[in-house]
Design goal:
Radius of gyration: 18 Å
Strand content: 15-25%
Oligomer: single chain
Distance between the termini: 25 Å
Helix content: 25-40%
Largest sheet: 6 strands, mixed
Number of helices: 9
Amino acid sequence: MPISHPVPRTPPPPAGLQSPALLVSDLDYTYPGGHPALKGVSLVLGRGERVALVGPNGAGKSTLILHLNGILIGSGVINIEGTRLEKRSLPGIRNRLGMVFQNPDDQLFSPTVFDDVAFGPLHMGIPEAEIRERVAKALAQVGMSGFDNRLSHHLSMGEKKRISIATVLSMDPAILVLDEPTAGLDPRSRRGLIDLLGSLDLTLLVSTHDMRLVAELFERMVVMDAGEIVADGWTRDLINDEALLEAHGLERP
């Protein structure tokens, strides 16, 4: 049973919360074996916010993320930019909320980098000329221009992670959700990825164990444990709360 440790956000909330990019209300989910993975989770992200989602293994972070574009479906309400997530709205929501998984090989399956990055726009029915423009723009955003004809499975882990992000950026999302983006990266690749994330003008929700990343890039931090949100506040406050971090399996950077 997690220790409840709510921390109020003492400064005024961002103006974007008046018209949130993401709203999750009272979300419950139990896996088929009977394990309750989410218990009454509620979360609001304002437009343009960058929010870190942290907690120990098994906290429910990945389960929550997989609900945001309908991969998993629990009971509760999810709204993406004012549109309720349901079966008929899924295609549009998946265009507006981009998901980047921890393992880039889960997203890179086409013969070339160009094909991978073009896959989403192609299935949106976008004309070929615009697809080429989108691919070029997305690759430039992640610092991978000129990699169009490279074989995705021959790239380094850091390069694969950048291309995975490009496959989502080519769909022009408003919200970017990433699961453990710095996992498995060497220091140089990690530094480059942090700089890349910091350069994106999008609403960001990032699940991570990398507390140095959280401290550097995210103003707000949400702590999950045992399927519940146990703290939600300014990173500068929560990251210095040693009792909170210790209670929920986290370490100060």
